[in-house]
Design goal:
- This protein is an alpha+beta fold and about 325 residues long.
- It folds into two domains: about 1-140 and about 305-310, 3-Layer(aba) Sandwich (Aminopeptidase), CATH 3.40.630; about 150-270, 3-Layer(aba) Sandwich (Aminopeptidase).
- It is built from nine helices and 17 strands.
- The protein has helices at about 10-20, 30-35, 85-105, 125-130, 155-165, 175-190, 200-210, 255-265, 290-295; strands spanning about 1-5, 40, 45-50, 50-55, 60, 65-70, 80, 105-110, 135-145, 170-175, 215-220, 225-235, 240-245, 275-280, 280, 285, 300-310.
- The strands form three sheets. It has an eleven-stranded mixed β-sheet. A four-stranded antiparallel β-sheet has the order 1-3-4-7, sandwiched between helices.
- Helix 3 packs across helix 4 and helix 5 packs across helix 8.
- The radius of gyration is 21 Å and the shape is elongated.
- The two termini are about 20 Å apart.
- The model has no long low-confidence stretch (mean pLDDT about 95).
Amino acid sequence: MQLIRYTKELEGDWNGFVATAKNGTFMTSRRYMDYHSDRFEDCSVMFVEKERVFAVFPANVSRQTIYSHQGLTYGGLVMGNEINAARVLEAFGLLREFYVHEYGAEKLLYKSIPYIYQQQASGEDEYGLYRNGARLVACGISSAVNLRCPIAYERSRRNALKKAAKNGLSVEPSTDYAGYWTILNDVLGKRHGQVPVHSAQELELLAGRFPENIKLFVVRGDEGSIIAGTYIYIYNNVVHTQYMTATDASRHTGALDLLVDYLIQTYSPTHQYLDFGISTEDQGRWLNEGLIYQKEGFGGRGVCYNQYELSLIHQ
């Protein structure tokens, strides 16, 4: 097996492999990754033997550190069904040699793909990390509802759904990306002093590239105005909420509860998990107990988003 540097000419090979990989998602395709290629110095690689791709590694480099990949929620080795543990160990050896020689890199920060996003068991990379002396440096806890084996809603969530019904709220798909982004930007600014990572234009671009994978759902009040909403990323097994929020005026109307219940009822026939995303900050050292309480009230239970640090110059 040999390592080759990814170039634009290999985009078709990369995307074709990711589409059939045992832990690949549309997020690790170049059509998604490259929308923000101007922000990162890409150093992705592919592992090939006899012109067959066995794995790819989405990565960027900054200040002698390799990241997998800073523009993605998760990264790590995207592996085909035929790769085995011994070859993954070989791949790590090739990664170490390549990044030290070509970039003078000293360490690799590796974000593993959570198990719910995998089509087949894909733990060979975490074994490879262990064998190479990597250490866990971040652990964000997300909450995912098992749609095939759901846990009953807590009473507070059931009461909020009754409140939403009394308030005449409704949920619907929307393409008003700019309108919702304005609400989102306002809420994040007022409550957290933050701005969305994506611009309205970027979200519209990505939704246009992946119309079956990225959608916007909004909650409308009895007068028809948008009062809450969320983007969702739709994977093979998982529906992941992104940028879910509600206006200050609607926080006690049951709007978000109605939205979550709608997504659970809509996607339970076709998907296994609804993933709310992490409820932690500071690399997982701080847990937002109020935020995770609401997610757990719908039956969400823990899924870890792990990041490892691997020294490239000492083994």
